[in-house]
Design brief:
- By secondary structure, the chain is of the alpha/beta class.
- It folds into two domains: 238 residues, 4-Layer Sandwich (Nitrilase/N-carbamoyl-D-aminoacid amidohydrolase), CATH 3.60.110; 75 residues.
- 34% of the residues lie in helices and 23% in strands.
- The protein has eight helices and 13 strands.
- It has a six-stranded mixed sheet with strand order 5-4-3-2-1-10. The chain has a four-stranded mixed sheet with strand order 6-7-8-9, with helices on one face.
- The longest helix has 26 residues.
- The chain is globular.
C-alpha cells in the first residue's frame, strides 16, 4: 500500500513538472504564446456524470500543456452550491495537478441569492475570482449580477469572462475592450455564432466560445487546425503579442523598425481595406509591443483611445481638428 501511494505521488509530480516545463519552454518562443482549451461538454445534465466527463477532459488538457481551460455554462447541472463547494473543489485538484488555470461555471448558492457564476481557479488550485452573469436568460430563475464586467490579470495576460446570453449586449464587450483585455472566455449553452466573430473583429481581442468548439482570433476569423485530444475538447496556441497598428502616420517608423528587426518582426498581414498592418514576432524572446514602444508606434487600440479622447476634447472646446 505504501509503495502504491508513493508511486501515485511520484506520478503526479512528474505530470506537474512536465506541464511546468512546457510553460517555461513557451516563454522562450516568439511573442506571448498561450495554450488555451475549450471543453465543450454541454450545459447541464447529471452532476456526477458531467463532473466525471469534465475531469476526464481536464486530464487531457493538462497532459497537452494547457495554460487555461474553460468548461461550459453550468456544465454539471443546475443544482446550486456554494463557492467554494464540491464541484469547485474537484476541479481545483486538476488545476493544481497540471499547473493550469481553469474556469469552472456553476450555479452558485450565495448567502442571499442564486447566480449563474463562472469561477476562476489558478494554477495552484486556489479560487482567485468569479464572474456572475449580467444578462440572465428568461426562465433561469436566477438573480442578475449587479457587479458587471470583471477583469483578471493572469501570468500570461488579461482576461474577462462573459456568459451565454451576454452575447446579445454589446456594451459588455465594449467594456472588455476599454479594459484592454487580451482574451474573453464565453462559457455557454449554445454556439454564439457570427456575433462573436464581429466583437473579436471590432475590438481585436481573442474570444474563446465554450459552446460548439470554435476559437476566434483578433481579426474575427475562426482559428484553423485546432487540436482535439478528445471529441469535445478544442485546444489552440494563441500569441497575445500579435499586434495591429494603423497605417495613419506610421509608414516611415514601421519601415525603420522592419529594417532594424529584419527576419525578427514581420508583417503578418497587410489589411488594405481597413488600413491596418498586423505584426508578429518570429524571434525567440522578442515581443512586438516592446519594440513598438521603442519606436513610438501606437497600437491600433492606443490610437483609437487617444483619438477618441482628443477629438472629444476638441468638440467640447469647439476647436478644429
Amino acid at each position: 500500500m505504501v509503495r502504491k501511494s508513493l508511486y501515485l505521488v511520484l506520478l503526479m509530480l512528474a505530470v506537474s513538472c512536465e506541464s511546468l516545463a512546457s510553460q517555461i519552454d513557451r516563454d522562450k518562443l516568439p511573442g506571448r504564446q498561450v495554450r488555451i482549451s475549450a471543453i465543450c461538454i454541454g450545459f447541464g445534465g447529471d452532476h456526477d456524470k458531467k463532473l466525471a466527463l469534465a475531469v476526464e477532459n481536464l486530464h487531457a488538457a493538462g497532459k497537452n500543456g494547457v495554460d487555461i481551460a474553460c468548461l461550459p455554462e453550468e456544465f454539471a447541472g443546475t443544482s446550486a452550491e456554494p463557492i467554494p463547494g464540491p464541484t469547485t473543489a474537484a476541479i481545483a485538484e486538476l488545476a493544481k495537478q497540471y499547473n493550469m488555470y481553469v474556469i469552472c461555471p456553476i450555479r452558485e448558492q450565495a448567502p442571499d441569492a442564486q447566480y449563474n457564476t463562472a469561477v476562476l481557479i489558478d494554477r495552484k488550485g486556489q479560487i482567485i475570482g468569479y464572474y456572475r452573469k449580467v444578462f440572465v436568460f428568461w426562465g433561469e430563475g436566477l438573480q442578475c449580477s449587479t457587479e458587471g464586467v470583471k477583469v483578471f490579470d493572469l501570468d500570461f495576460g488579461r482576461i474577462s469572462i462573459l456568459t451565454c446570453f451576454d452575447a446579445n449586449f454589446p456594451e459588455l464587450w465594449r467594456q472588455c475592450y476599454d479594459e484592454d483585455v487580451d482574451v474573453i472566455f464565453w462559457p455557454s449553452a449554445y454556439g454564439g455564432g457570427i456575433v462573436l466573430n464581429g466583437y473579436a473583429m471590432i475590438h481585436n481581442y481573442y474570444i474563446v466560445p465554450v459552446g460548439w468548439g470554435n476559437i476566434i482570433d483578433i481579426t474575427g476569423r475562426d482559428l484553423q487546425d485546432l487540436q482535439q485530444p478528445t471529441a469535445a475538447q478544442f485546444i489552440a496556441t494563441i500569441d497575445l503579442d500579435r499586434t495591429i497598428i494603423h497605417k495613419d502616420f506610421n509608414k516611415d517608423k514601421l519601415d525603420t523598425l522592419l529594417k532594424d528587426y529584419r527576419d525578427r518582426i514581420v508583417v503578418e498581414e497587410d489589411c488594405k481595406m481597413e488600413g491596418w498592418w498586423r505584426l508578429k514576432s518570429v524571434a525567440p524572446g522578442l515581443r512586438v509591443r516592446n519594440v513598438l514602444a521603442k519606436y513610438k508606434i501606437e497600437t491600433l487600440s492606443q490610437y483609437r483611445r487617444r483619438s477618441r479622447t482628443e477629438i472629444n476634447q476638441a468638440r467640447k472646446s469647439n476647436k478644429r481638428i
